[in-house]
Amino acid sequence: PPPQAICCRDHQHCCPRGYTCNVTAQSCEKLLAPTPLLPAPAPPRRAPAPPRRAPASPSAPLRAAGSEPGAAVPCDAARSCRGGQRCCRSRGGSWGCCPFAQGSCCSDGRHCCPGGSRCTGGGWGCSPQRWDLP
């Protein structure tokens, strides 16, 4: 096999680095490039809201924070990501934002992969998530 090749689960084929095995099709598929995490900003500080009076007529029920589309996604008490993003632990124990709501966080703490794929090699590639791959 070529240097840094990936051996397939069938123990008969290998793929070069940057590719993943498709055992069913007996082919190698190019890995997607991982996406760097975005910084997770601290939520803006707000001035205290003035007291509200009770409504005279029934109103819509209150919604939990983060339940509305586009609402911030809390990572912890101090950091959050924008709606449609996912919180990932970054290097040093802080947080980063993956721009894909259904993305997967890479173990390198610097990258993530789009939904339907997973990180390989600690963050150097994204492979399709399929039944015939580990």
UniProtKB/TrEMBL annotation:
Residues 35-78 are annotated as: Disordered. One of its GO terms (cellular component) is extracellular region. The keyword Secreted applies. The keyword tRNA-binding does not apply. Residues 54-65 have a biased composition (Low complexity). Residues 8-21, 106-119 form the Granulins domain. SUPFAM superfamilies: Granulin repeat. It comes from the Eukaryota. Residues 36-53 have a biased composition (Pro residues). Belongs to the granulin family. This is GRN protein. It comes from Pelecanoides urinatrix. The gene is Grn_0.
